[in-house]
Write a structure and sequence with these properties.
The complex is a heterodimer of chains A (319) and B (307). Chain A is 66% helix and 2% strand. With 319 residues, chain A is mainly α. Chain A has a two-stranded antiparallel sheet. Chain A is globular and about 70 Å long. Chain B has 307 residues and is mostly helical. Chain B has a single domain, classed as Up-down Bundle (Ferritin), CATH 1.20.1260. In chain B, helix 3 packs antiparallel against helix 6, helix 5 (145-166) packs across helix 7 and helix 6 (172-200) packs antiparallel against helix 7. The radius of gyration of chain B is 21 Å and the shape is globular. Residues 1-7 and 16-31 of chain B have low confidence and may be disordered. The chains are: A mainly alpha (319), B mainly alpha (307). At the A-B interface, helix 2, helix 3, helix 5, helix 6 and helix 9 of A face helix 1, helix 2, helix 3, helix 4 and helix 6 of B. Chain A: Pfam families: PaaA_PaaC. Chain A: This is 1,2-phenylacetyl-CoA epoxidase subunit A. Chain A: It comes from Actinomycetospora straminea. Chain B: This is Phenylacetate-CoA oxygenase subunit PaaC.
């Protein structure tokens, strides 16, 4: 059965009405092709970020300096694998599968958050990733719990709860280190100095340079602009930095009484462009590791499929 | 038309911005030893040092195994396996932590204390490999995924048989740890058995790798059924389990799984001991040193620090 042009117009009008009324679009509902593609791109990018994000933190699991910190970190990295799983499942409701998206990731045809292309050089980086990187991720993700696409919005509710738990854990680690030795305090400040600017870049290009924002906001996939979210993150983080006793590495950062918000310095967009383009400190390493895990696991996945096929065959009654 | 839920952006942001009550959020604070406290008295007629050593043996098995499994992070063949292997590593780490705390309470940490760390961390991070009491099976390189699941199958079947019996120990902490661990180990064994079946009876390649993985693990199995003098004394005192009694149960599991997976039981000699001494005496393979060097490096670089 083919859908006529008139029918398409009706479906499109229904879709627009549902979205405008803050309703949810579900997998079986009609949706414009551009909406489907935008969602696949955004959710896949988010799923890939969870999976690649396991690497910088995983770097410290074997060396975590106390058993409690080891348990926390291992559980956190495990949660990220879980987030990747639900997000890939959400993309499956849009008609793509995990294997196809994984291929696109390792062929560098789809992106992931550029923040994970920075190295974790000390254990304080684990705390700072929790505090700043998860903090920025939450600012980005909380509004997505109201995204117009139902499966994505529901996945985000669960993910945001776990992310906020991770952010608290990161902050708690940093508080412990700041109350510790001089070497531990220096480690925290060094980590803050390295992660602050990349964390601001997590919100993406400035509004004037963000080509997809307007359409995504009209479709209620996205709820706030990049710059609005970035400002919210800065305003939320400044008092937390003061509570910790660390300095954010920006001499222009100050409260603007008139705007009731913080002014902050210019972001190095050239560095951001470099990292997005694939030339950040760890891009090649992250993709090579993901590719190795995927390719080294092929024989295992093949075996599981062969075993399942044999069992299915055995269950067919003899004719 | 579907209505959206009551997620309120502003409240979530506000809650995240407040920096108090962090303790509430810290995963893994305190211990869960079931019903018994770490500081329960030593049962009458039991030697305190023997009990501490036995706690270390069971703790070190779990700690080193957990460290090895954690090495799979970001390398597993599928995301479901990432989650499952991390789960097993976390369960074992949890078992190790309670047992180390109990050993510490019994005085085992004192010879190694250099700073302000808790007993569990003194024992995990400031003890050299010669003072680790684990069986050597847990310290070997895990090889590929097939060898890893063979290793989990053997380790979990053995530890399950051991801890099932330990639930009747006269030491209340050991009994409580065992009671909680039995459920965990049952899952680990079943997870591994499922994969041994899939890989053994999957493709010709996976079959060959599964058989090779089993062969690589096999020489370390005999040690699991060898009793150390400390274990023998504590068996007599009603506290420990005699490992020689576990052989039948572990073999029954393997006899069920291996033929179903079209695998053959390896015919390989056990690894030799050094002057009759093995892992339980602190005489290990060359593999343990590097595992501990990685695990302990940061903690030892800051002996005056807590984390």
């Amino acid at each position: 059965m083919t859908v006529t042009e008139d029918e398409t117009r009706d479906l499109e009008a229904d879709f627009e009405r549902t979205v405008a009324a803050e309703g949810r679009i579900e997998p079986r509902d009609w949706m414009p092709e551009g909406y489907r593609k935008t969602l696949i791109r955004q959710i896949a990018q988010h799923a890939h970020s969870e999976i690649i994000g396991m690497q910088p933190e995983g770097n410290w699991i074997l060396r975590a300096p106390s058993l409690r910190r080891k348990a926390i970190l291992l559980a956190k990295v495990q949660d990220e694998a879980g987030h990747g799983l639900y997000l890939y499942s959400a993309t499956e409701t849009l008609g793509v599968d995990r294997a196809e998206l994984t291929e696109k990731l390792i062929d560098a045809k789809q992106k992931y958050s550029s923040i994970f292309n920075y190295p974790t050089l000390t254990f304080a980086d684990i705390g700072v990733i929790g505090w700043l990187v998860d903090g920025a991720a939450i600012c980005n993700q909380v509004p997505l719990c109201r995204s117009s696409y139902g499966p994505y919005a529901r996945a985000m509710v669960r993910i945001c709860k776990e992310e906020s738990f991770h952010q608290r854990q990161g902050f708690e680690l940093l508080r412990t280190l700041m109350a510790g030795t001089d070497a531990q305090r220096a480690m925290v400040q060094d980590a803050v100095d390295r992660w602050w600017w990349p964390s601001l870049m997590m919100f993406g290009p400035a509004d004037g340079d963000s080509p997809n924002t307007q359409q995504s906001m009209a479709w209620r996939i996205k709820r706030h602009t990049n710059d609005e979210l970035r400002q919210r993150y800065v305003d939320m983080t400044v008092p937390q930095a003061a509570a910790l006793g660390v300095t954010l590495p920006d001499p222009e950062l100050r409260w603007n009484d008139e705007l009731q918000a913080h002014d902050f310095g210019a972001i190095d967009w050239d560095e951001f462009a470099q990292v997005v383009k694939g030339a950040g400190p760890c891009n090649a390493q992250r993709l090579a590791n993901r590719r190795a895990a995927h390719e080294d696991g092929q024989w295992v996945r093949d075996a599981a499929a062969a075993y399942a096929a044999k069992r299915a065959h055995q269950e067919v009654p003899a004719a | 038309m579907h209505s959206h839920d009551e997620t309120d952006d502003e409240n979530v942001y506000d809650a995240l911005a407040s920096a108090d009550d962090d303790g509430r959020w810290a995963f893994g604070t305190g211990f869960d030893a079931g019903t018994a406290e770490i500081d329960a008295p030593v049962p009458e007629g039991v030697d305190r040092d023997d009990l501490a050593t036995y706690c270390l043996m069971l703790a070190d098995d779990a700690l080193v195994a957990s460290q090895r499994l954690a090495g799979w992070t970001t390398k597993a063949p599928e995301l479901e396996e990432e989650v499952a292997l991390a789960n097993i590593a976390l369960d074992l780490l949890g078992q190790a932590r309670v047992l180390l705390a109990r050993a510490g309470h019994l005085g085992a940490a004192e010879p190694f204390r250099v700073g302000p760390q808790d007993d569990e961390d003194v024992l995990a991070y400031f003890r050299d490999d010669r003072a680790f009491r684990n069986v050597t099976l847990v310290e070997i390189d895990l090889g590929d995924f097939a060898q890893t699941v063979a290793w989990i199958l053997v380790l979990a079947s053995w530890r399950l048989a051991l801890l099932q019996r330990l639930t009747g120990s006269r030491d209340p902490v050991l009994a409580a740890v065992a009671g909680k661990a039995v459920k965990e180990l049952t899952y680990h064994r079943d997870y591994a058995a499922q994969w041994v079946l899939r890989l053994g009876d999957g493709t010709p390649l996976s079959h060959a790798r599964m058989q090779a993985g089993l062969e690589a693990v096999w020489p370390f199995v005999e040690e699991l059924f060898t009793a150390h003098a400390v274990e023998r004394r504590l068996v007599d005192a009603g506290v420990a389990v005699d490992p020689t009694e576990l052989r039948g149960e572990v073999e029954a599991v393997l006899d069920q799984v291996l033929p179903a997976a079209t695998l053959t039981r390896p015919d390989r000699a056990a690894v030799g001991l050094v002057g009759g001494r093995g892992g339980r005496d602190g005489v290990h393979t060359e593999a343990l040193g590097p595992v501990l060097a990685v695990m302990q490096s940061l903690a030892r670089a800051h002996p005056e620090a807590t984390w």
